[in-house]
Amino acid sequence: MLPFQNAAPTPARDWRHIVRFGLNVASYKFALGQALLELAAQQQTFVPLPELAVSYASRLCEHLQVEDRQSTAPQSRFLDACRSRNRGDPEAAQLTEATVRLGFANVIDAFHISRGGQPTQTRFFVDERASRHGITLTDHLLELANGQQAKVLPLEVDARWNLVQLSWACGWVPPWCHSKWPRMKTPSTCTRPPGCGAAPSPVSGPR
After folding, report:
1. What DSSP letter does each residue of 70-114 carry, written as one string?
2. If DSSP codes are grouped into helix, strand and coil, which group holds residue 169?
3. Tens digits of residue pLDDT in 66-125
4. More confident site: 65 or 7
5. What does the domain layout of the chain look like in residue ranges?
6. Under a CB-based contact definition with an 8 Å cutoff, are residues 33 and 55 in contact?
7. Torsion of CA 46, 105, 112, 44, to 10 degrees
């Protein structure tokens, strides 16, 4: 067990718990995390859903160009809309509308859930979709996004995202990929980045 896993909670540790130990059944958590850091770095507090949708969906569109599998679910209308946008259709405004309608169904509610299904002590935003059609970024997030670790946090999110999507592309689910979906038994053909070494043996059955 890594030393920071049981260390006293701090905003930075809670953020990393979310990124590293939250359930990985889709990559939405990573896209939302990057969008939150981007908007907080601009010193925003209240973020309307359409504005959040632009940054959030753009991150997913970028990763879909590298790896088409961004979820363990067999189908996603939202991801299909992002794929269509990468092909030039629909227009950006239509993707924003689809993201507001489909893209936040679960990720906002589940974002703060970490290891063991427990919420982190630190809250990085307040969900105000029902009352104001948006979210309010907390001081904890603003401090992280503009503090000493501001440059490294987005890189950490992207690194974890890359590892998770690589595992899906290869057809294996490593122990650190906490998914409630069944583990895939037969790895598909994939290209491993330089320096990664040999692909691990496929993992069969949940641990």
Report:
1. -BSSS--HHHHHHHHHHTT-S-HHHHHHHIIIIITTTHHHHTTB-
2. helix
3. 999 999 888 999 999 999 999 998 899 999 999 999 999 899 999 999 888 889 999 999
4. 65
5. 3-170
6. no
7. -20
